[in-house]
């Protein structure tokens, strides 16, 4: 896998509903490998690779990332914002962001709040709510108002870096890593059994919106959603609560808050992993969801499973993954596409 592509993907801005930069990049990447490429009315990018049968496989990976939307520019130049998608306020304080203006600028910003030396001891012992945070872009009120408008968005700011034993960290690994796996699959796919519809979806982080409309337009016989999932294999978390662990392989989802995986598909994927020596772990998640939640309910129903990439510190700018887990995710998705899966 060419991880330089993942590096490029993570640095692109793509807050939910504002995925155009990511879509342009993917379009350029897939052009040599696709039989058809189109963008639907909501902004999903739909890439078709024709197979040797009349059966359709839908593979989905969402392009969007969690972020911030500016809703007020104060007379002092400080920006107030609301979250787009689920962000823990504890991860925002003292972080850098990029404010993307409607005029095309990308401005450095710093998230601040009242400093410790002007707060009480009781206040310092509490988490700071989002309403008490602001973005400092280093401009006067007049300068900020001239360059920034309500509705402009901000992305978390952190470079892609590799560290430790096959680990990588960046912002937006949720879900540019899934996008990366799907891109690598299209490049590697040779004479697939299925007509493969690789769908790069929009607005997953705010309600699986793109996947719902895209799945409706595709008569899929089978579907996989390639996305991240929490890996709680960290201090303070008991092993039974890990959900997934880094380095243990692709997460084959049994259940989450939005989906109970089709029994036949779930069992077939586990058999395929064993037959192909693909390292996997069963994902049983009491919370969370992904595009599978919308896809499996499309029309009269689609057998669908989420292939989940274990990710520590999810929905922050320091998400962490293991390279080998991405490789195992690609291996399983590729094995499904190449030959008919009997469920």
How would you sum up this structure, described in words?
- The protein is α+β, with helices and mostly antiparallel strands.
- It has 2 domains: 231 residues, Aminopeptidase (3-Layer(aba) Sandwich), CATH 3.40.630.10; 90 residues, Peptidase M42, domain 2 (Elongation Factor Tu (Ef-tu), domain 3), CATH 2.40.30.
- 26% of the residues lie in helices and 27% in strands.
- It has 9 helices and 17 strands.
- Strands 1-2-12-3-13-16-14-15 form an 8-stranded mixed beta sheet, sandwiched between helices. Strands 5-4-9-6-7-8 form a 6-stranded antiparallel beta sheet.
- Strand 1 and strand 2 form a beta hairpin.
- Helix 1 packs across helix 5 and helix 5 crosses helix 9.
- The longest helix has 16 residues.
- The two termini are 29 Å apart.
Strand order of the largest sheet: 1-2-12-3-13-16-14-15
User: Which structural category do the helix and sheet elements fall into?
Assistant: alpha+beta
State the shape.
Answer: globular
Based on DSSP secondary structure assignment, what is the total number of beta strands? 17
Residue-averaged pLDDT, rounded?
Answer: 94
Spatial separation of the terminal alpha carbons: 29 Å
CATH top level of the largest domain is Alpha Beta
Q: What is the CATH-assigned architecture of the largest domain? A: 3-Layer(aba) Sandwich
Extract low-pLDDT stretches: none
Written as H for each helix and E for each strand, in order along the chain, the element string is: HHEEEEEEEHEHEEEHEHEEHEHEEH
CATH topology of the largest domain: Aminopeptidase
- CATH-defined superfamily of the largest domain: Zn peptidases
């Amino acid at each position: 896998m060419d991880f330089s592509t993942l590096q490029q993907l993570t640095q692109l801005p793509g807050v939910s509903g504002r995925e155009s930069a990511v879509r342009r990049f993917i379009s350029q990447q897939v052009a040599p490998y696709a039989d058809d490429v189109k963008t639907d009315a909501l902004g999903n990018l739909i890439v078709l690779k024709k197979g040797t049968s009349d059966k359709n496989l839908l593979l989905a990976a969402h392009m969007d990332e969690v972020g911030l939307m500016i809703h007020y520019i104060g007379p002092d130049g400080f920006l107030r914002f609301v979250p787009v998608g689920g962000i823990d306020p504890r991860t925002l304080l003292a972080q850098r962001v990029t404010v993307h203006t409607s005029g095309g600028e990308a401005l450095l910003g710093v998230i601040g709040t009242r400093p410790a030396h002007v707060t009480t001891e009781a206040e310092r012992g509490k988490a700071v709510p989002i309403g008490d945070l602001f973005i400092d872009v280093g401009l006067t009120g007049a300068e900020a108002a001239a360059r920034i408008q309500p509705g402009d968005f901000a992305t978390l700011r952190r470079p892609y870096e590799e560290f430790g034993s096959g680990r990588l960290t960046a912002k937006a690994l949720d879900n540019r890593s899934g996008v990366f796996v799907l891109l690598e699959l299209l490049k590697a796919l040779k004479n697939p059994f299925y007509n493969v519809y690789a769908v790069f979806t929009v607005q997953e982080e705010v309600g699986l919106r793109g996947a719902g409309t895209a799945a409706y337009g595709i008569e899929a016989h089978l579907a996989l959603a390639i996305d991240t999932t929490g890996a709680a294999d960290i201090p303070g978390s008991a092993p039974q609560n890990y959900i997934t662990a880094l380095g243990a392989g692709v997460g084959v989802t049994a259940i989450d808050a939005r989906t109970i995986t089709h029994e036949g598909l779930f069992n077939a994927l586990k058999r395929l992993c064993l037959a192909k020596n693909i390292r996997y772990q069963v994902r049983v998640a009491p919370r969370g969801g992904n595009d599978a939640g919308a896809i499996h309910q499309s029309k009269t129903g689609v057998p669908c499973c989420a292939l989940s990439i274990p990710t520590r510190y999810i929905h922050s700018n320091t998400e962490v993954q293991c390279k080998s887990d991405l490789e195992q995710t690609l291996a399983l998705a590729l094995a499904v596409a190449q030959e008919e899966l009997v469920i």
